[in-house]
Amino acid sequence: MAAALALAGAAACSHKRSNDKPVYSVSYPIQKTLLHAIVGDNAEINTLIPAGTNPETYDPSMSTLVSLENSDAYFRLNTPGFEEAIMAKSGNGIQTVDCSRGIKTINGTHGAGHADPHVWTSVKNAQIIADNIFRNLKPESAEDAETYKRNYQKLKGLLKATDDSIAGILAESKGKAFAVMHPSLSYFARDYGLRQVAMETDGKEASPRQLAERMEKARKLKAKVLIHDREHSPAQAKNVAEQLGLKLIIVSLNGNDWREEMMKTAHAIADN
Fold it and tell me: Which of 88, 253, 91, 84 lies closest to 183, judged by CA?
């Protein structure tokens, strides 16, 4: 990846924009959803991680990195892995915005000393991300500034309505347990008073003994559903769900239909 980043920097010199719109790069599809809700078609948005991709193993292509090098701003989420590599190689004057600023992170799900990177699985966190995006935009005109402000207020209303809807769906589910393979829903569980039981250990595949212990915990907590992120392999999830007699629900947490997937997750827990 380091070589690709170096090549991207060189290739950027010959790249030209197709129009005069500002170009913004984001790391995750959720950021594109929020950014587009604010700026509409007044900017080009380059997403580094394609929808449906596992962000913890993804390595951006050189064409993606070239697009990043030609961006007016890069909105990141301060997650480990590819973002760290990009930031280490950055130095071309691109404005960089940490969209996770102000989010209270959860530690311990992905190893000691590491913050849980799946901050976008919380509607409340999505509002913080949207705040950080809006505050760091540089409208090209007074008209754009008014448009962005108006769109941002609409977005805030939609996020608040989404949070309220999910809270309503889960109103009778406080303390309820649900199983997952990878601990992707820690922030969702925190928001709505749920108990996530991850089959993995520190965000990595568990040993047979550890897996047996996690499965026993899911039994004791009377979990009824296993929610599995489509970006991870489903084979073991199907096996665990069958052994525990759990309903297996597949969601796409790093997809384009973020709001729909959050609602689907809430219904999966409340209805099982």
Answer: 253
